[in-house]
Write a structure and sequence with these properties.
four-stranded mixed β-sheet, single chain, Immunoglobulin-like, L,D-transpeptidase catalytic domain-like, about 10% helix, mainly beta
């Protein structure tokens, strides 16, 4: 019974049979075509690259490998450059043609490995090398990853700031596909396009405690558009500590801290009073200041009004750019645990605020529930990324959008009536 391969993306896994039968002694069964060492498949395939004439491959054109004889077929293709970047591709159902589905890098050296089988099922193999030409694009796209390298809480998103705006969906998919995030322990995650120049990356849940997160760009030399190629970008490494989550219940006037899922402390607090209600939802610690001067004019309250204030505030842990903090509020100790009297911040005693300040760091989670305030914005006022469901977060990915478009196109093709 002959086996016909189904279309698949080639992302760097060589055919198992080829690997197992690399030596004649490893697979020895008389009469079995798979028992022999793979033959040289040079005469069985054609490649749209140079043939030893010193010419370079045009990086703006896809790689194409075709089977030259009707009784043979291609079984696997891998292409990788000297930097270790694999070229994704697609093999036709009948094994007669493979083509790359992602751009090549300019000025790169590639190794192309092709596995075949002839009409009798005997395996063949050919390894080719080639260089791509110089880039023709006039502009270079670089990426600045954030935050700064260091230790963070498990809620810290990774950010990517592009040097130029990318609006075209296909170009966004190229860029996003080259921005790599790996963590140990490994977790699934996705990028979200906040705007034309900014992306955020987060897992479905928070990062694991005591994880190492490595971020890098594989865009260097890759064609993004007619006049735009990727440039080199500095990689980033982050680590996480314990999983610290503070839950503020505005209705109960309490803040409870959980460390790795276990409650470690609960303190009385006061939150925003009516008209200044604290935002609900998940926030991420942005920074800390042992002393901050807080003025009512910074949140739109006119000086001299009954709501105005100008105070030195100690042990301030910031959670929004608009001025929401967890901080010491000795002037409201009598209301803490009983009433909400602040202008939006979470206030507590000086001792409790100092403990919170010393315990929490950037990237740790502060969650507010049961407030009459609005929900924390996903973007623009800090890191409200976790307030989007995973399904909605995935909708912000250009790769997910491209996959969905491809699925819709294939579905429409299946439903199209046959020509008369």
């Amino acid at each position: 019974m002959s086996i016909h391969p189904r279309p698949r993306l080639v992302v760097g896994c060589t055919l198992l049979v080829t690997a197992l039968c690399a030596g004649a002694t490893a697979c020895s069964s008389d009469g079995d075509p798979l028992s022999s060492r793979p033959y040289d498949a040079a005469d069985q395939i054609a490649f749209n690259g140079p043939s030893g004439d010193g010419k370079k491959v045009d990086p703006d054109k896809p790689l194409v490998v075709t089977a030259q004889h009707g009784d043979g077929r291609i079984t696997d293709v891998t292409a990788r450059d000297a930097a270790g970047r694999y070229v994704a591709g697609e093999l036709s159902a009948d094994g007669t043609r493979w083509h790359s589905t992602v751009p090549l890098a300019a000025g790169a050296h590639y190794t192309l490995r092709v596995s075949t089988e002839d009409g009798d099922g005997a395996p063949g193999r050919k390894v080719l090398t080639f260089d791509t030409g110089s880039p023709t694009a006039k502009k270079t796209l670089t990426v600045a990853f954030g935050p700064e390298a260091g230790a963070y809480g498990v809620g810290q998103p990774v950010t990517a700031e592009l040097s130029a705006p990318i609006k075209d969906p296909a170009q966004r998919a190229v860029v996003e596909g080259a921005l790599k995030v790996d963590s140990s322990p490994a977790v699934a995650g996705s990028w979200y396009w906040v705007n034309d120049k900014e992306l955020h990356y987060r897992p479905q849940e928070y990062w694991p405690a005591h994880a190492t997160i490595r971020v890098h760009s594989a865009l260097d030399g890759i064609r993004i558009g007619d006049r735009l190629r990727g440039g080199s970008s500095k990689p980033l490494q982050l680590t996480t500590g314990d999983r610290l989550v503070a839950v503020t219940d505005a209705a109960e006037h309490s803040l409870t801290v959980y460390k790795n899922g276990e409650e470690v402390k609960s303190v009385p607090v006061t939150t925003g009073k009516p008209g200044f209600d604290t935002r609900n939802g998940i926030k991420v610690v942005l920074g800390k200041q042992s002393l901050v001067r807080m003025r009512s004019t910074s949140i739109g309250i006119a000086a001299g009004s009954s709501e105005s204030y100008d105070l030195p505030v100690h042990w301030a842990t910031r959670v929004t750019w608009s001025g929401e903090y967890v901080h010491a509020a000795p002037w409201s100790v009598g209301s803490q645990g009983y009433a909400n009297v602040s202008h939006g911040c979470t206030g507590m005693s000086t001792a409790n605020a100092e403990w919170f300040f010393d315990t929490f760091r950037k990237g740790d989670i502060v969650k507010v529930v049961n407030s009459d305030g609005d929900t924390m914005e996903p973007f623009g006022n800090g890191f409200g990324d976790w307030n989007l469901s995973w399904a909605k977060w995935r909708q912000g990915s250009a790769l997910v959008a491209a996959q969905q478009q491809g699925s819709d196109t294939r579905a429409r093709a299946r439903l199209r009536p046959a020509a008369l």
